[in-house]
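Go through this chain.

——
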Amino acid sequence: MRNTNVPLYLIIFCSVLLTSLFSEIRAQKAPSEFWNHVHFGGGIGLSFGDGFFSGTLAPSAIYQFDERLAVGVGLNGTYNSLKNEYTSTIFGGSILTLFNVIPEIQLSAEFEELNVNRKFDSRFGVDNDNYWYPALFVGAGFRSRNVTVGIRYDVLYDERDSIYADAWMPFVRIYF
């Protein structure tokens, strides 16, 4: 049986991280200058065909400390359905760090925690699911201005529970 509660260690870790991050930001920057270092971006996905539909909205924001380091947070919401077979809703958030080794090469680390709710058609004899799934991505990409294209790997990948088909995933990251 899966645990459907957010692990306490995750709540504590995120609270401490965000509190210390924003305390550091407040100590370094005047409020008017703070927003000059914030960049917004994210992803939108849409897929459909032959009874299948999937839609994703994943906004995020980063704080650019300098030309090399940025830290941020993101949200993720996804809805999937396959006619007469299943539907799923996935909601969660992430904390990410971006580090530019040189202006063109960006390394990244992202911790994502998602609540997965799957409902199957009863004729298949599969139980409905509701559980939390963690993912820890490490990645590398080529960066040109505000766009990065690369690949990331989920070091916590679990083939049975993951919403992703594979631990390796390409990505396109855009921040404005």
Strands lie at 38-49, 52-64, 69-82, 86-102, 105-120, 129-144, 147-154, 168-174. The chain has a mean pLDDT of 86.
